[in-house]
């Protein structure tokens, strides 16, 4: 319930905000709590209007801390400077975003890997690592429609001891991406599909903080398999997924 309050106050990062929004759409109790909090916020704004600071408060505060009063001309200049600084900050942010999108092929996989490992760890810490719980690929694949730019390829690997658990939405570079979740023994595998370059390639770090990573790209999508499984077993999973002809 606390995450619902944080969501309504705009305190969550994009990934958690998206996750909570989806949970509210699926769980009536969370939706009811969100509605109750919204009504309370509205009531507070209506019944308790914001009070203006008493005259002379600013001068008393400045005097108590020994601040030098700001003349009107200086204040106007400062406001203009703050506006300019804000515009510079926005430009820098946009430039950094653009830079992220065009970094070379060795740097970008490392950034994506860090993000997806963090998403995997966050999912492991949650009550359940998926947004939609189902071992049926005919349920999981359609669930992604309208939630991500393109629905992922979903295969049934239960006969190979890699049963499907479900799926969830992760965020990479502010873009929602699909993550399929498989299980092997007591280990969870997160398989995320990110828009790729259309060629079958491999690359990126092999492990981060004890989590192994296997990456390949095919049919315009870059696939990232992340788990605490031994690398050989994770490579077996990746091979089975890539060569399986069973999908929706």
Structure description:
The structure is a single chain. By secondary structure, the chain is an alpha+beta fold. The chain has a domain at 105-243: 3-Layer(aba) Sandwich (Protein Transport Mog1p, Chain A), CATH 3.40.1000. It is built from 8 helices and 7 strands. It has a 7-stranded antiparallel sheet, sandwiched between helices. α2 (14-26) packs across α3 (28-47). The radius of gyration is 24 Å and the shape is elongated.
Proportion of β residues? 15-25%
What proportion of the residues is helical, as a percent range?
Answer: 40-55%
Number of helices: 8
Task: Find the CATH topology of one domain.
Answer: Protein Transport Mog1p, Chain A
By CATH reckoning, the class of one domain would read: Alpha Beta
> Spans of 5+ residues with little confidence (pLDDT < 50)?
93-107
Spell out the key features of this protein:
single chain; 248 residues; alpha+beta; Protein Transport Mog1p, Chain A; 7-stranded antiparallel sheet; 8 helices; 7 strands; 19% strand; elongated
Q: Which helices and strands appear, and what pairs or packs with what?
A:
Blueprint: H1 2-8, H2 14-26, H3 28-47, H4 57-64, H5 72-102, H6 107-125, E1 132-133, H7 137-143, E2 164-172, E3 175-184, E4 187-195, E5 207-208, E6 211-218, E7 221-227, H8 231-243
Helix pairs in contact: 2-3
Short description:
It contains 8 helices and 7 strands, in the order ααααααβαββββββα.
């Amino acid at each position: 319930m606390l995450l619902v309050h944080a969501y309504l106050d705009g305190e969550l990062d994009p990934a958690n905000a998206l996750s909570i929004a989806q949970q509210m759409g699926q769980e009536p109790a969370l939706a009811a709590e969100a509605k109750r909090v919204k009504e309370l916020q509205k009531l507070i704004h209506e019944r308790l209007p914001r009070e203006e600071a008493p005259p002379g408060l600013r001068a008393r505060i400045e005097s108590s801390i020994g601040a030098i009063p700001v003349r009107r001309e200086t204040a106007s200049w400062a406001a203009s400077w703050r506006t300019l600084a804000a515009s510079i900050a926005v430009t820098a942010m946009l430039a950094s975003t653009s830079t992220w999108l065009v970094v070379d092929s060795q740097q970008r996989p490392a950034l994506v890997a860090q993000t997806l490992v963090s998403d995997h760890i966050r999912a492991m810490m949650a009550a359940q690592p998926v947004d939609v719980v189902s071992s049926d690929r005919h349920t999981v694949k359609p669930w992604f429609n309208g939630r991500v730019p393109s629905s992922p390829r979903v295969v049934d690997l239960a006969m190979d001891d890699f049963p499907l658990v479900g799926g969830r939405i992760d965020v990479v570079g502010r873009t929602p991406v699909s993550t399929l979740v498989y299980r092997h023994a007591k280990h969870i595998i997160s398989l995320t599909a990110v828009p790729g370059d259309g060629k079958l390639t491999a690359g990126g770090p092999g492990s981060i903080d004890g989590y192994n990573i296997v990456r390949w790209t095919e049919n315009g999508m870059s696939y990232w398999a992340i788990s605490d499984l031994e690398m050989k077993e994770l490579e077996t999973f990746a091979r089975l997924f890539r060569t399986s002809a069973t999908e929706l």
